[in-house]
Amino acid sequence: MRGAAPFALGLQCPGLPKTSPSTGNGGNSAERRQGVAEITLRVGCQWRLGKAWGPEPNRYQAFARFEEDHDRSHTWTLLLRLSDPLDRGSPRLAATVHYLMPEAPQHLILPGARFILHPGHESDAFADGVVVEAAVH
Length: 137
Description:
Helices cover 0% and strands 36% of the residues. The protein is mainly beta. The protein has one domain: Translation factors (Elongation Factor Tu (Ef-tu), domain 3). Strand 6 and strand 7 (127-136) form a beta hairpin. It is built from no helices and seven strands.
């Protein structure tokens, strides 16, 4: 979140073991990761999150690109489970995040990993995020 002031929400992934940078799986579907992320809306942008399928409230989805993902041949969908109902007037939100597809680069969901959310074209990114905690599930 370049240029954004950090904020702490004290969120956790209860009951799941923490990951370490050395346990990446490079997309192996046997190990799926989720993280808790702090996400900040870019100045002049609006939240452009799609409602995720299913009965659970506060679930959304968006295309994401992690800073460390150098493979530009795929765009992956990130699912976001918000800690609170979406307030479209707020520039910040907290969410538990994970990839929709098991073959996505799971190893990128690590504490400190930075990513952008976009509607389909990275040049139209509307938010910046950082993973603050990660777990294997």
